[in-house]
Amino acid sequence: MPDLPPVLRRLGRGPQRPALAAPVAPSRRAAALVARLNRIPLG
């Protein structure tokens, strides 16, 4: 598996995912994040 960008490494580290688990994160922001991740080719 190639070296992942810091964002993916942060999201994929263990069961605790601060960026995704934050209850205050607006759904619009989450949707934008998901869309951005979906555009990144994981090889």
| Coarse shape | elongated
> Domains counted in the coordinates: how many?
1
Distance between the termini: 8 Å
Q: Please tally the β strands and state the result.
A: 0
Computed structural class? mainly alpha
Number of DSSP helices? 3
Whole-angstrom Rg: 11 Å
Low-confidence stretches: none
Element order, helices and strands? HHH
**Mean pLDDT reading:** 63
The major β-sheet equals: none
- What portion of residues belong to β-strands? under 5%
Q: In which range does the helix fraction lie?
A: 40-55%
Give the secondary structure arrangement, pairings included.
Layout: H1 6-11, H2 18-21, H3 27-38
Descriptive account of the structure:
This protein has one domain (6-38). The chain is built from 3 helices and no strands. With 43 residues, it is an all-alpha fold.
Please describe the structure with a list of short key phrases separated by commas or semicolons.
43 residues, mainly alpha, single chain, 3 helices
Quick summary of this structure?
This protein is mostly helical and 43 residues long. It has one domain.
